[in-house]
């Protein structure tokens, strides 16, 4: 009969064998990566490219400079904002895609998407007067559940017009309200003679609403003047504002930093040009656009998560940002790999359902009103 001490050693030996068995078995279990918990499982498949000729006109206006787009699902139409500083306006567009539920086999040519313009609306102030020339550089647009449109302007430095985010009546374009901005976003010179605020042509390019419409997110194309390192080195952080809206006046509740991809060797322009909210949990698509003399335009789509990002609201200057955690992002698609030339892609929106019942994703280009540069629109299939 074993003694008590021998029994103790026996049980310790059994526990050791059991622990080793569990450890060895766990090695065969699928390992969950941190990124797979942080980001959504998405795949983008290219569907088609559609263009509007560079000489397209509508209602006595030149159609161009389309830098933002948003989808009106009930009416199956888009609203695209033009960045024409002389006449701020948006166009109503209809994208005719193949029937997602065809009752008959498709006929020849019916699978080719078509883009048509159906309306034009001038943006007006609260007195119903059209916004005067050189008072706005409109870049972002989003449709609210209340059937109004949110529009962002980068501002116009030469006329000392500050950037803004405003809400407009969808039908007549009249301004309804303005959203508050921190004072450190307004271009100005400090008492020390240092520039502060949004830099010229690098303001609020990105604008998106959460699917429920109660949250608005807007981001600058690049860093504020006071956030740039004096030696020109170091990372570039865009500022991303987070509003609560829908009942009463909109309230700015948070601000985060978005890390811009480093400039390529030959890049002369690089910026965050659009955000698109994927859900109510802080996931987005972001569109970054580059331009280089050697390679022309480029663009990359990232998935973005706000999880764990530091709130920097009220921080006039970033200064030592070693303790600040920016939003996290993951490359989803480098659009240069599509195999054709890209234009100045700036607008991003979901669109109508495709034949596989997946959502479509639409990216539109700002042709800068240049001759021989048609307005480019790319369509993708979004699979999850």
Task: Describe what you observe in this structure.
The chain is mainly beta and 384 residues long. It has two helices and 24 strands. It has helices at residues 4-26, 34-38; strands at residues 43-52, 57-58, 61-62, 66-72, 77-82, 89-96, 114-122, 138-143, 148-153, 164-169, 175-178, 188-189, 195-196, 204-209, 215-220, 237-244, 251-259, 267-277, 283-292, 296-305, 328-334, 345-353, 359-365, 375-383. The chain has a four-stranded antiparallel beta sheet, with no helix packed on it. It has a four-stranded antiparallel beta sheet with strand order 4-5-6-7, with no helix packed on it. Strands 8-9-10-11 form a four-stranded antiparallel beta sheet, with no helix packed on it. The longest helix is centred in the N-terminal third of the chain and has 23 residues, at 4-26. The protein is globular and about 60 Å long. Mean pLDDT is 89; it is low at 1-7, 13-32 and 104-110.
Radius of gyration: 25 Å
User: What is the arithmetic mean of pLDDT?
Assistant: 89
Report the uncertain regions: 1-7, 13-32, 104-110
Major sheet: 4 strands, antiparallel
Q: How many separate domains make up the residues? A: 1
Assign a percent range to the helix content: under 10%
Q: Classify the beta-strand content into a percent band.
A: 35-45%
CATH fold-level label:
Tachylectin-2, Chain A
Strand adjacency order, main sheet: 1-24-23-22
Signal peptide: 1-34
Keywords: Signal
Pfam families: Phytase-like
Domain Phytase-like: 62-369
